[in-house]
Amino acid sequence: MSRPIDELINETRIFYQSLVQMTEQLHGETSISLGMRAVMEFLLKNGAETVPNMARQRRVTRQRIQALINQLTELELVKTVSNPATKRSPLISLTSKGKKTINEMRQKEAAMVDSLSVSDTKLRATTNVLELVRLDMESKHSQTQE
Questions:
Q1: Domains and CATH numbers, the chain
Q2: Among 27, 88, 122, 126, which residue carries the largest CB count within 10 Å?
Q3: 9 burial class (0-12, 13-18, 19+ CB within 10 angstroms)?
Q4: pTM for the whole thing?
């Protein structure tokens, strides 16, 4: 018999793969990957940000974010903007084309998500549990790193 945490981790992995497949089906005509979409969503929600700060907040490497930014720049979906706080790390922001693209993607996704039969209450509870488990795991991991 598997432990509840093992079941949660397994379901999370399967859920992630379902998200990847759904995104590919909905946005197959675009060359925007799930990672690129996540960066665009982050910039839409948070505004212009530096690559190192995005990496920290997304819990990925700076190199990974930079690679995604390079791809998005080639597609003219993001641009660099001077950073008044430091010349070493420019701010990255969505272009008008980028804002239009991510908003169109979100509209397509909203239509699919709105058809789900899971209540908002259950979705919030699930989100809260995942956050609690993540924070506990991060806390334990950081203690073992010291």
A1: 4-115 (1.10.10.10)
A2: 27
A3: middle
A4: 0.80
